[in-house]
């Protein structure tokens, strides 16, 4: 039976539970697994280490190769992403690393085109050359001219971190020609956006963020077709970056509430964003729900809603940003996002610290991740913190005078 997305979020990856005689997800922690005999043990190893699935009568061999709890989460996430398969990693950056290793190795091409802005860690990984990859960073409309004969992959993020710029996935896919496109879908989640339906080859998540949603899991996952998934599992088996089963268990458990969380957080974000636009301390509010932040009209077409992230530029610049982040009481001043509780952080100093100066976000920019609190309480907290920045500025001015 074809399920609507909300039902799928609750039921995906659980089809066999009744037959197992259980109702909740099993958590399997074995690091090693008994082998039927040397021949079948060896064959199982061979199949799993080269990216295949376990076979009837074989063994899962070793937890770096295959874990049933991880595989269950992968199956659920693949269904939510409209993908054939997904592959889970120990973090979002481990997932990105595996994609770069697998695709450059497979194609014997060493060049990547990356559309800025990107999450600072991704930007850093690509710019560092650590993996032997040469990267051309460009704007969305320059992808066609940046692609070369030796381009293995095009990377984009939408909404992009930290300014929430929206990138037209279909347009970049068209510009990339036959080069596969990876979309970092961390901010939108499969509740709002399905990159594979728009022509992307890979949809990547830092599962640490909305998928986890409770600030207690670090993980990454890539949704793609079966052929790419096998290449990613092979890379994962060799380099050892598989997700821990407890993380997979928590992530799978959290998928059931992902659509409800996402919609409620998005509603809260809309209210907070509207309120922020009227504040004199705020020069600019970046929120995909505002026409000014969505010039190409992608909310409602490419992604079904604006999401729950807001970025603001403060009139008082860095000094005001510093006062705001240290004056909030209900928001937590911390990196990361997508949790049930609200977070605030300064991208230029933290998440985007390693980014080259020409691409670094403004010093006046602060990023807000809106949680599930009552928006009235979040607004009250921001009101007192913004007032504190104004008072402190006036005090500083008086002291100088
Ligand atoms: C956090 C983040 C990552 C990196 O994920 P980790 O789980 O921290 O390794 C990648 N992309 C985006 C958009 C992120 O926000």
TrEMBL record:
SUPFAM superfamilies tied to this protein: PLP-dependent transferases (SSF53383)
InterPro entries: Cys/Met-Metab_PyrdxlP-dep_enz, PyrdxlP-dep_Trfase, PyrdxlP-dep_Trfase_major, PyrdxlP-dep_Trfase_small
Keyword Transferase attached: yes
This protein's record includes keyword Transit peptide: no
UniProt-recorded Gene Ontology molecular function terms: transferase activity
Alphabetized UniProt keyword annotations: Pyridoxal phosphate, Transferase
Cofactor list: pyridoxal 5'-phosphate
Transmembrane annotation, as ranges: none
Family note: Belongs to the trans-sulfuration enzymes family.
Protein name: PLP-dependent transferase
Organism: Microbacterium yannicii
């Amino acid at each position: 039976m074809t399920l609507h997305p909300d039902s799928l979020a609750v039921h995906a990856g659980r089809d066999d539970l009744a037959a197992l005689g259980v109702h909740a997800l099993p958590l399997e922690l074995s690091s090693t697994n008994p082998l039927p005999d040397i021949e079948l043990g060896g064959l199982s190893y061979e199949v799993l280490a080269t990216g295949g699935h376990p076979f009837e009568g074989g063994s899962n061999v070793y937890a770096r190769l295959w874990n049933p709890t991880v595989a269950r989460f992968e199956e659920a996430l693949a269904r939510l992403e409209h993908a054939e398969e997904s592959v889970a990693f120990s973090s979002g950056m481990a997932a990105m690393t595996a994609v770069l290793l697998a695709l450059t190795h497979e194609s014997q091409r060493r060049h990547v085109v990356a559309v800025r802005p990107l999450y600072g860690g991704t930007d850093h990984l690509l710019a560092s050359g650590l993996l032997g990859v040469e990267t051309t960073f460009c704007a969305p409309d320059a992808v066609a001219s940046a692609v070369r004969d030796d381009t293995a992959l095009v990377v984009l993020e939408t909404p992009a971190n930290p300014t929430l710029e929206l990138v037209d996935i279909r347009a970049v896919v068209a510009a990339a020609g036959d080069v596969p496109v990876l979309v970092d879908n961390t901010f939108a989640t499969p509740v709002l956006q399905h990159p594979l339906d728009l022509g992307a080859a890979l949809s990547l998540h830092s599962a640490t963020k909305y998928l986890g949603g409770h600030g207690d899991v670090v993980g990454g996952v890539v949704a793609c077709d079966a052929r790419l998934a096998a290449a990613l599992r092979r890379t994962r088996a060799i380099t050892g970056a598989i997700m821990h089963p407890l993380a997979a268990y928590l992530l799978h458990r959290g998928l059931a509430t992902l659509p409800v969380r996402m919609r409620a957080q998005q509603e809260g974000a809309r209210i907070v964003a509207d309120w922020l636009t009227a504040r004199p301390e705020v020069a600019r509010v970046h929120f995909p729900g505002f026409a000014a932040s969505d010039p190409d009209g992608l909310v409602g077409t490419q992604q079904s809603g604006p999401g729950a992230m807001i970025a603001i530029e403060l009139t008082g610049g860095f000094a005001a940003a510093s006062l705001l982040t240290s004056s909030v009481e209900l928001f937590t001043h911390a990196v990361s996002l997508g949790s049930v509780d609200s977070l605030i952080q300064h991208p230029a100093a933290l998440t985007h610290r390693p980014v080259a100066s020409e691409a670094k976000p403004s010093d006046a920019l602060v990023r807000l991740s809106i949680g599930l609190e009552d928006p009235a309480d979040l607004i009250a907290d921001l009101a007192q913190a913004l007032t504190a920045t104004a008072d402190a500025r006036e005090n500083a001015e008086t002291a100088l005078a």
